[in-house]
Task: inverse folding
């Protein structure tokens, strides 16, 4: 479904030796940045006083039907951790599809043509606390699949990560759906393994709203 250049999806899932996603030498030698406190400029304050943004996310699968997730925390409450799909805010004048392509590249280094993304397959409006602020994010989810790649495939890279991402994301991992379903840690969106299973035989063209 995609012609992206990808890391070897046949590698066993699990934490990398380095707490950051596997990266090339240039990425691993990037200068350390200090802690970040506060949301980025793409978060606006609505009339109800709640910070909000529109976002695009990617449910990325490999040829073994594993899903790629990031592991993050709240920088001000580091004991709060969760797994979540690749994605982020939609820039002004940008379509959700273009934002999904851009965010996938920024967070993983993978280049996926827009034509190879399917969807949006899901929509979700979530309200949550982050950086001790109440936030609302309206999300559209796209689906993409990576082909099998050999040993020479490019590694993940964090070259384009924002300060907030460098501060709050510590792992990027391929998850088997059964292992993910058994995980005793929050995963967003909730029920992701079953949502993915419902897409394995194809998408019916309906964007389904998620409750959480």
Result:
């Amino acid at each position: 479904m995609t012609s992206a250049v990808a890391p070897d999806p046949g590698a066993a899932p699990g934490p990398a030796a380095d707490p950051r996603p596997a990266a090339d030498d240039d990425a691993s030698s990037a200068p350390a940045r200090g802690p970040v406190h506060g949301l980025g400029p793409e978060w606006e304050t609505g009339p109800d006083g709640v910070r909000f943004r529109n976002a695009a996310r990617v449910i990325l699968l490999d040829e073994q039907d594993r899903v790629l997730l990031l592991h993050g925390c709240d920088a001000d409450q580091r004991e709060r951790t969760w797994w979540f799909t690749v994605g982020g805010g939609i820039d002004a004048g940008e379509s959700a599809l273009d934002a999904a392509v851009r965010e996938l590249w920024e967070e993983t280094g993978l280049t996926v043509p827009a034509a190879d993304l399917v969807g949006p397959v899901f929509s979700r409006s979530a309200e949550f606390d982050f950086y001790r602020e109440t936030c609302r994010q309206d999300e559209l989810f796209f689906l993409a699949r990576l082909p099998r790649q050999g040993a020479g495939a490019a590694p993940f890279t964090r070259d384009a990560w924002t300060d907030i991402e460098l501060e709050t994301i510590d792992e990027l991992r391929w998850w088997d759906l059964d292992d993910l379903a058994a995980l005793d840690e929050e995963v967003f969106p909730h029920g992701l393994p079953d949502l993915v299973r419902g897409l394995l035989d194809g998408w019916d063209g309906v964007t389904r709203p998620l409750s959480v």
